[in-house]
């Protein structure tokens, strides 16, 4: 089986500081793959590079058979790779519905767009109830849902989620995590960056532990959930 996403020896630097120091991993179609690790490990930098917002200094990224390394960000979206960024980045003055419509800006199928907005409301009913409200009035968790809904509006083959549980209550976090599993069952492949290692490993098919720009450990979510060093370092066990 060829991978949907293949990352080979990826290197990314901010000036002289190398934030990602040659990482390699793959994402197979239909999988949930997670990158976990402490602050500053390079997870966000990796996602921003995959979506074309940062240019790597080395390595190669292949998505759906196409080399992405020199492809601009908007083209990457049109190839089927969407990014729900850390800190959400919704448009606070626009309504929820307008935010969702913006996620479909490259599409030209109005009926399909309307159907997908409805799908976002089915996934997150609160968004449907508030559809005419300015997005800035939503709670943090609701904004996170909107960011995910908006990323889905490009009908991605691969959805990249950066810290979707950040700042959420346990109930909201559960909701987001169960939605990720639901999206997988509907055929979306997911690359998930999370600080909440327990939650991420519980639902991941494959997981990679990042430390200071490198991948220290890889395995199935279940294997890493039971790995002693992971339990000590990332799951807070003695
Ligand atoms: P977090 O979970 O805290 O977001 P992360 O694993 O996503 O961490 P990154 O945000 O990718 O880590 O950061 C990796 C390294 O790159 C860190 O040392 C960080 O300080 C540095 N870095 C990130 N953004 C910039 C920037 N714009 N300019 C310079 N250095 C940066």
Question: Can you walk through the features of this model?
Answer:
The chain is α/β, with parallel strands linked by helices and 238 residues long. It has a single domain (30-52, 73-234), classed as P-loop containing nucleotide triphosphate hydrolases (Rossmann fold, 3-Layer(aba) Sandwich), CATH 3.40.50.300. Helix content is 37%, strand content 26%. It contains ten helices and ten strands. It has helices spanning 43-50, 73-79, 96-102, 110-123, 125-129, 140-152, 170-185, 197-203, 221-225, 228-234; strands spanning 5-14, 17-27, 32-37, 58-63, 66-67, 81-84, 158-162, 189-194, 206-211, 214-220. The strands form two sheets. It has a six-stranded mixed sheet with strand order 6-7-8-3-9-10, sandwiched between helices. The chain has a four-stranded antiparallel sheet with strand order 2-1-4-5, covered by helices on one side. Strand 7 (158-162), helix 7 and strand 8 (189-194) form a beta-alpha-beta unit. Helix 4 (110-123) runs antiparallel to helix 6. The protein is globular and about 45 Å long. It binds adenosine-5'-triphosphate. Residues 14, 17, 19, 37, 39-45, 195 line the site of adenosine-5'-triphosphate.
Q: Secondary-structure blueprint of this entry?
A:
Elements: E1 5-14, E2 17-27, E3 32-37, H1 43-50, E4 58-63, E5 66-67, H2 73-79, E6 81-84, H3 96-102, H4 110-123, H5 125-129, H6 140-152, E7 158-162, H7 170-185, E8 189-194, H8 197-203, E9 206-211, E10 214-220, H9 221-225, H10 228-234
Bound molecules: adenosine-5'-triphosphate.
């Amino acid at each position: 089986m060829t991978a949907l996403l293949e990352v080979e020896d990826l290197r990314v630097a901010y000036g002289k500081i190398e934030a990602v120091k040659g990482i390699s991993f793959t994402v197979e179609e239909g999988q949930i793959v997670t990158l976990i690790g402490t602050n500053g490990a390079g997870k966000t930098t990796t996602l921003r590079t995959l979506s074309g917002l940062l240019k790597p200094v080395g390595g190669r990224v292949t998505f759906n058979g196409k080399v992405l390394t020199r492809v601009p960000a908007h083209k990457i979206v049109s190839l089927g790779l969407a990014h729900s960024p850390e800190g959400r980045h919704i448009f606070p003055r626009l309504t929820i519905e307008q935010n969702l419509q913006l996620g479909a800006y490259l599409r030209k199928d109005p009926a399909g767009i309307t159907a997908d907005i409805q799908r976002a409301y089915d996934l997150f009913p609160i968004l449907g109830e508030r559809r005419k409200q300015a997005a800035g009035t939503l709670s943090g968790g609701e904004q996170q849902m909107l960011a995910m809904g908006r990323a889905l509006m490009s009908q991605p083959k691969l959805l990249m989620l950066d810290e979707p549980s950040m700042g959420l209550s346990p109930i909201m976090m559960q909701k987001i995590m169960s939605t990720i599993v639901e999206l997988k069952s509907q055929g979306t492949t997911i690359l998930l960056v999370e600080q909440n290692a327990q939650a991420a490993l519980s639902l991941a098919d494959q997981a990679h532990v990042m430390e200071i720009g490198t991948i220290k450990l890889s395995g199935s979510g279940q294997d890493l959930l039971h790995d002693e060093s992971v339990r000590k370092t990332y799951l807070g066990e003695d």
